[in-house]
Design brief:
mainly alpha, 4 helices
């Protein structure tokens, strides 16, 4: 099996760098779990969530760690990566 590669929609095609980072992370996670067959979507989604979380956290830090901005930062990060 190769690394998970489903980009999950049009927005991901606009940022191939993000898609490639998610692919690398998904492949790493898959390898760490022994390379189980038939789980590519699971690893893709897990890696994508990790990248969304990291972007939201980075955005929050860049803003000076303001209280009450978690939802906005999460929504913005998800939008950058391709979630609606």
């Amino acid at each position: 099996m190769s690394a998970p590669s489903d980009t999950g929609g049009e927005p991901m095609r606009k940022n191939s760098g993000v898609a490639e980072a998610i692919r690398r992370t998904a492949y790493f996670l898959w390898q760490q779990d022994g390379g189980p067959e038939g789980r590519s979507m699971h690893y893709w989604l897990k890696a994508k969530e990790m990248h969304v979380r990291q972007r939201a956290y980075d955005r929050w830090l860049a803003e000076g760690t303001p209280a009450g901005r978690a939802d906005d930062n999460w929504r913005d990060a998800a939008g950058e990566i391709g979630d609606k």
